[in-house]
């Protein structure tokens, strides 16, 4: 090796690591060091720098290992001469590792050895690897630890992680790892015919699993740090083995008793690794009863369960002074206990020992009652699954178990977000979650799980459960401790009041119980079902009467109270007087009066009550339409009275919808007349002169919404500066004008009542039912008549929001329109003010002339979104919309025709509320006529909206940021947030488009390449993107746009979409598509995997690259395809291409094809192995290991297969896809 080269390397490394080096010199030195990876003397240079005899410092030795790593990765496939040289270098370095070498150096050697094993370990090349490992294991403590690390890494890469190189060689590596890990006696017992080429690779008869067992046995009584370090390495290797090694080998090695002993080890890391191993053992599948008894049955023995209980009780976790290791250990122990539930129903049948299932249930209940909700939640799914079983679930009284579950549930069904009490549970919540969003999501999930336990308990034991819950509810309200009382005669209580929290919890328990009875009606099939149901109904009716007599008027309780009462109504059909009392309560809530001296929060609460109770009264109509229809005329009079005297136009729509649902969901001779009476007065307004004027032109739109009147009023007030309307207070004339405009707007903007009438009438109706077909006949002529007006309205709204449409208007009008179209949001963690400050600012603005701009902007945005919803409802009316000729293009232009008038926020809503429903609801016969017109135009317009995002330019000089700068910075952050929400919605749209199928005849060949697909597609399917070049072109252009965004989630989802789409594209049919995939998509993909900013995204993009390569490899020499690739990768010679084709054809599945392609790209320089890429790969590896640790929670079908289940297929077939 050239001495000057070494000198240059040392000088460059010195510059990089010297803190006094300038940035320019450091970058120059780094560039030089990276350039060395292409040097012809890379391998020998790396070896001489890395070996211990060189006496270089650790940073130099580490760099030498990096050079060796690059040489390994770029070593061509089949070049064993170079491979032998590299293995000799690494073996020599590994043999001389010492205790004094730092951890990062040892781990680098582990990584390099693993790389070599994945590439070269086989009988024809590096057959002595296992002998070398065993020799090093016996050599010294340092090499022993190194060997355990090598085996751990190798097993993880082959069996647990999505490693590309291991996948490419999975058949060989799987068989070889099983061979060296398993005792010979076990293999001979399991396999009658072992492969000699694999047998020759092992160094001894005992196998590595037995070696790990010996280490653990020797370390169990030694609590020294050195012993703990060795035990940790051994447990890590065991953990990497347990999912795939033969069960009989696990039993022979005494892994179960050893790991159980280590649960009480003083070292916390040892304890956690031990419980990880035990968790894997109890979640594996055991097909043999003897194996089951040895590894699962013994865990159900009373002494074993008692040990678990003692361990849980002994773990002291104080949320005020948290010990993270102990808390993590506790959660893992609880997970393991709950995981035994997989075997709960079969353990007595498969194991002959003295199993006491009640002891196990007591143990699980102990974990459910833990003050940490995170720990408690781990066992809640177990109770739900247990209660769903049809056979007996305990050895004694089930009713006692159900009672204990109900008692615990009643204490845990609280709305913890409202709790202000400082207790242990709340302190654990503060500890467990960093953000409000995470905490809220968890609490919602926890509440659903508790509700499910109550629901299923009631279903299983209805009389006992209802009686207990009823008594508990009565007890709570009898002892109501709120000073103001239930009827709100005193002060109004906040939702954080403990009495209110407890009262809401009782309503939630009641709802869950009633839903349990709904399930009982389906689940219970005994002969006495009718009698039992009559008894239950009588009980429920009397309970409803008790609840009706509770004088609840507290605003925070009314909403939940009404929702609970509505659930009683299916049982009140024979007691009309009680039913009318419930209906009266609902109607009273719809006109709930605002208490005196109400603040803004209470005002909002009351509005929410009136709105939500309107929804509940419609739920009542869904539940018992036939019963209510008997009193339709009385209901009509009551609704007419309320609409005339007590409800606004906005609120009255819900009650009209109630009448509509009642009249249309039952058999009646008056259905058509009642439909016309409610619907036609609203729909006829679409053809009124003001509405026609409004939708015909932008000028007419602005005139009808009141721009001239507002301008005249501003002139009257002498307003000169339209950009500072906050400075001008609202006077009485302004308030009168605003009220007049709002009344006028309610008569103009008809999208909301149209949407509500359509959606409420058809909601959850079977499309083959007579009710739905009758409604379809009524809606069809009306909807097709109003559709042009609705589409024109959307066009005018887009024009109103587009600055490009304001040419010719005065500067004052432009300023006012700009303020009206400005979207204002508050987002936790993004806004530079609190929510209260934001609301206060809004309230202050409402008292100034700014309220005109805000109110106008709000009604326009509100109308736009309700128009989307109305069109979405129309799309659910079978083919009513789709059968109109040319309507696809009309929809596209109305929705996306003016991109400058579509904000990120509104575009996200447009995609979610109307475009995706249009795709989902389009029947196969109209896919080409409608979506073929709609999608190409719409996707390109959405791309223009995405193009408007310019990104943030944030100054580095944070200390000089002014208040104005802070405001601008907040606006930029909010814009980025809205943009990301748009891109995520767009990605989901791409996934929808992928799945759109078109009809085709049985004798027609499919465009779906089943061999390359990872999804469950069938060759008997044909997809839109595979038969419509226009849709495909727009789809691919949008994918390219999303792939270059600096957002990992968008890149990941787009890669999913491309991965699913490419096999559906016909091969060598559309030349432009082929060129686009190669010259536009592939270079972006190469950049993503080179930068590797996110491991998940890079993995999926690697699959996209693989599919493109494999797609063209399957083209059977189609003219021009190889030339395309050679234009992209000049080094791709004919021989290299042919070799790649052979390897791709040989790889049996997509995962192994990916390994072939990634290896090819690395060898041919498309993936340049930089130090930064290595760091990202290691980070990705750690992330995958965390996910792999959770794999035992997946369904059995998703886990790695059990070798014992595949005895007849031979070693080489194990663990392949």
From TrEMBL:
Signal peptide: none annotated. GO terms for molecular function: nuclear export signal receptor activity; RNA binding. SUPFAM superfamilies: ARM repeat (SSF48371). GO terms for cellular component: cytoplasm; nucleus; RNA nuclear export complex. Residues 1194-1217 are annotated as: Disordered. Residues 324-1167 form the Exportin-5 C-terminal domain. One of its GO terms (biological process) is RNA export from nucleus. InterPro entries: ARM-like, ARM-type_fold, Exportin-5_C, XPO1/5. This is Exportin-5 C-terminal domain-containing protein. It comes from Tortispora caseinolytica NRRL Y-17796. The lineage of its organism: Eukaryota, Fungi, Dikarya, Ascomycota, Saccharomycotina.
């Amino acid at each position: 090796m050239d001495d000057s080269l070494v000198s240059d390397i040392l000088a460059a490394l010195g510059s990089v690591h010297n803190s006094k080096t300038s940035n320019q010199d450091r970058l120059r030195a780094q560039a030089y060091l990276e350039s060395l990876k292409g040097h012809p003397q890379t391998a020998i240079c790396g070896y001489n720098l890395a070996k211990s005899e060189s006496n270089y410092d650790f940073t130099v030795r580490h760099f030498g290992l990096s050079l060796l790593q690059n040489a390994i990765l770029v070593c061509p496939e089949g070049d064993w001469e170079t491979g032998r040289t590299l293995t000799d270098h690494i073996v020599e370095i590994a043999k001389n590792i010492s205790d004094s070498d730092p951890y990062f150096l040892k781990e680098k050697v582990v990584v390099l050895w693993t790389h070599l094993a994945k590439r070269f370990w086989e009988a024809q090349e590096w057959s002595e690897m296992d002998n070398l490992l065993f020799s090093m294991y016996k050599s010294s403590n340092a090499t022993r630890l190194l060997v355990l690390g090598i085996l751990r890494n190798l097993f993880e890469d082959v069996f647990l992680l999505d490693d590309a190189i291991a996948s490419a060689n999975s058949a060989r590596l799987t068989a070889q790892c099983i061979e060296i890990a398993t005792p010979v006696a076990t293999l001979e017992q399991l396999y009658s015919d072992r492969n000699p080429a694999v047998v020759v690779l092992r160094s001894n008869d005992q196998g590595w699993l037995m070696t790990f067992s010996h280490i653990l046995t020797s370390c169990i009584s030694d609590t020294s740090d050195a012993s703990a370090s060795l035990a940790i390495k051994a447990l890590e290797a065991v953990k990497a083995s347990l999912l795939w090694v033969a069960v009989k080998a696990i039993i022979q090695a005494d892994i179960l008793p050893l790991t159980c002993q280590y649960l009480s080890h003083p070292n916390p890391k040892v304890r956690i690794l031990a419980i990880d191993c035990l968790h894997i053992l109890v979640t594996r599948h055991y097909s043999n009863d003897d194996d089951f008894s040895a590894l699962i049955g013994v865990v159900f023995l009373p002494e074993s369960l008692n040990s678990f209980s003692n361990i849980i009780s002994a773990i002291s976790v104080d949320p005020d002074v948290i010990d993270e290791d102990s808390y993590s250990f506790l959660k893992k122990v609880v997970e393991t206990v709950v995981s035994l539930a997989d075997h709960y129903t079969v353990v007595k049948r498969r194991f002959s020992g003295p199993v006491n299932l009640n002891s196990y249930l007591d143990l699980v209940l102990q974990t459910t009652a833990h003050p940490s909700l995170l720990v408690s939640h781990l066992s809640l799914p177990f109770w739900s699954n247990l209660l769903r079983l049809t056979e007996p679930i305990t050895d004694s009284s089930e009713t006692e178990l159900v009672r204990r579950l109900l008692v615990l549930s009643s204490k845990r069904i609280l709305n913890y977000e409202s709790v202000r009490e400082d207790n242990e549970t709340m302190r654990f919540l503060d500890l467990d979650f960093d953000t409000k969003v995470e905490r809220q999501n968890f609490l919602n999930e926890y509440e659903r799980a508790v509700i499910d336990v109550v629901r299923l308990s009631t279903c299983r034991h209805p009389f006992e459960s209802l009686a207990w819950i009823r008594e508990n509810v009565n007890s709570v309200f009898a002892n109501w401790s709120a000073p103001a009382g239930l009827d709100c005669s005193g002060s109004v209580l906040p939702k954080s009041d403990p009495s209110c929290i407890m009262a809401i919890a009782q309503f939630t328990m009641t709802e869950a119980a009633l839903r349990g009875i709904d399930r009982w009606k389906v689940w219970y099939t005994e002969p006495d079902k009718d009698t039992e149901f009559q008894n239950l109904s009588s009980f429920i009716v009397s309970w409803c009467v008790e609840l009706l007599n509770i004088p609840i008027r507290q605003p925070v309780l009314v909403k939940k109270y009404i929702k609970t009462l509505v659930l009683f109504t299916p049982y009140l059909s024979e007691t009309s007087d009680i039913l009318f009392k419930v209906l009266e309560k609902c109607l009273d809530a719809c006109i709930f009066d605002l208490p005196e001296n109400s603040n803004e929060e209470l005002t909002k609460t009351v509005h929410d009550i009136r709105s939500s109770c309107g929804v509940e009264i419609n739920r009542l109509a869904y539940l018992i339409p036939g019963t209510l229809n008997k009193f339709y005329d009385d209901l009509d009079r009551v609704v007419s009275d309320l609409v005339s005297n007590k409800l606004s136009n906005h609120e009255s729509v819900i009650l009209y919808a109630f009448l509509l649902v009642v009249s249309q969901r039952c058999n009646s001779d008056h259905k058509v007349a009642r439909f016309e009476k409610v619907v036609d007065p609203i729909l006829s307004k679409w053809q009124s002169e003001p509405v026609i004027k409004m939708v015909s032109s932008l000028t007419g739109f602005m005139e009808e919404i009141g721009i001239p009147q507002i301008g005249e009023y501003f002139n009257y007030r002498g307003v000169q500066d339209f950009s500072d309307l906050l400075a001008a207070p609202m006077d009485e004339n302004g308030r009168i004008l605003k009220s007049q405009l709002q009344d006028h707007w309610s008569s103009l903007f008809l999208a909301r009542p149209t949407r509500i009438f359509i959606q409420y009438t058809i909601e959850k109706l079977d499309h083959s039912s007579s009710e739905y077909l009758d409604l379809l006949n009524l809606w069809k002529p009306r909807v097709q008549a109003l559709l042009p007006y609705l589409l024109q309205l959307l066009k005018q709204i887009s024009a109103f929001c587009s600055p490009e449409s304001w040419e010719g208007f005065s500067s004052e009008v432009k300023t006012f329109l700009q303020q009206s179209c400005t979207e204002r949001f508050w987002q936790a963690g993004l806004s530079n003010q609190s929510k209260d400050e934001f609301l206060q600012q809004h309230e202050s603005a409402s008292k100034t002339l700014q309220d005109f701009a805000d109110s106008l902007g709000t009604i326009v945005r509100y109308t736009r979104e309700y128009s989307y919803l109305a069109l979405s409802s129309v799309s659910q009316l079978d083919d009513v919309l789709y059968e109109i000729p040319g309507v696809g293009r009309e929809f596209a232009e109305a929705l996306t025709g003016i991109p400058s008038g579509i904000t990120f926020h509104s575009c996200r809503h447009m995609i979610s509320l109307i475009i995706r429903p249009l795709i989902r609801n389009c029947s196969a016969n109209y896919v080409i006529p409608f979506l073929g017109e709609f999608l190409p135009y719409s996707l390109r317009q959405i791309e223009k909206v995405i193009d408007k995002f310019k990104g943030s330019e944030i100054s580095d000089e944070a200390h000089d940021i002014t208040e104005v700068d802070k405001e601008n910075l907040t606006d930029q952050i909010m814009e980025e947030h809205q943009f990301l929400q748009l891109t995520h919605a767009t990605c989901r749209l791409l996934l929808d488009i992928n799945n759109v199928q078109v009809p085709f005849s049985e004798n027609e060949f499919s465009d779906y390449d089943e061999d390359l697909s990872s999804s469950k597609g069938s060759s008997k399917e044909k997809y839109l993107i595979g038969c419509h070049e226009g849709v495909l072109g727009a789809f691919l252009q949008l994918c390219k746009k999303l792939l270059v965004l600096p957002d990992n989630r968008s890149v990941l989802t787009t890669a999913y979409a491309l991965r699913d789409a490419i096999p559906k594209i016909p091969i060598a049919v559309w030349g432009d598509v082929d060129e686009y995939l190669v010259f536009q998509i592939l270079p972006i993909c190469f950049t993503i995997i080179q930068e590797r900013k996110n491991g998940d995204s890079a993995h999926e993009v690697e699959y996209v690259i693989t599919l493109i390569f494999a797609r063209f490899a399957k083209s059977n020499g189609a003219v021009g395809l190889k030339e395309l690739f050679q234009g992209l990768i000049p080094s791709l010679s004919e021989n290299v291409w042919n070799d790649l084709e052979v390897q791709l054809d040989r790889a049996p599945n997509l995962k192994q094809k990916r390994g072939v392609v990634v290896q090819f790209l690395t060898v041919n320089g498309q993936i340049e192995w930089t130090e930064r890429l290595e760091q990202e790969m290691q980070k990705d590896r750690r992330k995958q290991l965390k996910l792999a640790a959770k794999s035992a929670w997946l369904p059995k079908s998703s886990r790695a297969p059990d070798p014992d289940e595949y005895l007849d297929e031979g070693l080489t077939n194990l663990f392949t896809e």
